[in-house]
Structures are given as C-alpha cells and as structure tokens.
Design goal:
Elements lengths: L11 H19 L5 E8 L5 E10 L2 E9 L8 H15 L4 E7 L4 H6 L3 E7 L6 E8 L3
Parallel strand pairs: 3-4
Antiparallel strand pairs: 1-2, 2-3, 4-6, 5-6
C-alpha cells in the first residue's frame, strides 16, 4: 500500500470537491436525484414573521430542516398549520413521507401528535438531552 498523509483543514474548496465526488458516486447508484427547497411562512397583520417551516423535497421524501413558531404564538395551531401545509406540498411533489430530527427540549410530542414516530435517538446529544430522528409515512 502506498503511504499517505492525513491533513486537518476546513478548506471550503476541498468540501466542495468532496461533495461533487460523493454526488457523482450517489448518482451512479441511484440515478438522478434533485432536491427542491420548500419554505412556508406565517405572518401577523403587521407583516412580522410569527412562524416558518423550511425544508426540502428529494428522493420522494420531505426533509424538515426547521419548524419555528414565535413563543407568543405557540399553542395557537400555527405550527400544526405550517406542518400540514408543508406535508400537503410534499404530497403534491409526489413524496411518500417526511423526516426530521428534534431534541428532547423541543417538544417531540408535538410531532408524535402530528403522526410522526421515532426511528432513532442519540442520548446525551447535547449532554443531558436526546436528539430524536422522526418520520411519517403519508397515507392516501
């Protein structure tokens, strides 16, 4: 085996090169895969953002990156409305389900009430908390 060196760096150009390489490899295994952004925002009457959901669809799944509702507007149904709207758009994009991660301090019970189930967890991530991975299969 040839000798090699290991270098520690955070070069953005290297990251871009590696992302292109893994993208080409993935494409060779699963064919074309494109991700399309999805964002929905709730505004109050004064045009202030009071909630938003940001994600992307790809490979027939919706990935929810962020779901946020202003603290004064929580428990009013805005979070549910945003999630339902995102899921509806994902279905329009022919997605079969949705996935996300959340933390034990971020009310994972909300997602369970919305039909999501846990499929993995990382205890003590961050220390004293749990990171949950959740999914929901859409039904007709």
């Amino acid at each position: 085996m040839d000798s090699y060196q290991i270098h520690f760096n955070s070069d953005p150009k290297l990251s871009e090169q590696l992302n292109k390489k893994i993208h080409l490899f993935n494409r060779s295994k699963i064919g074309k895969y494109d991700y399309h952004p999805l964002s929905i925002t709730a505004m109050d009457n004064d045009n202030n953002i009071i909630g938003s959901i940001i994600g992307q669809t790809g490979l027939d799944w919706l990935y929810i990156e962020v779901l946020w509702v202003d603290e004064r507007n929580r428990k009013t149904g805005i979070g549910s409305d945003l999630l339902v709207s995102a899921e509806k758009e994902a279905r329009n994009r022919f997605c079969t389900g949705s996935y996300l991660y959340t933390y034990s301090f971020q009310n994972p019970g909300f997602y369970e009430r919305m039909g999501y189930s846990k499929f993995g967890e990382l205890p003590d991530f961050p220390p004293g908390h749990i990171k949950f991975f959740m999914k929901k299969h859409f039904t007709e």
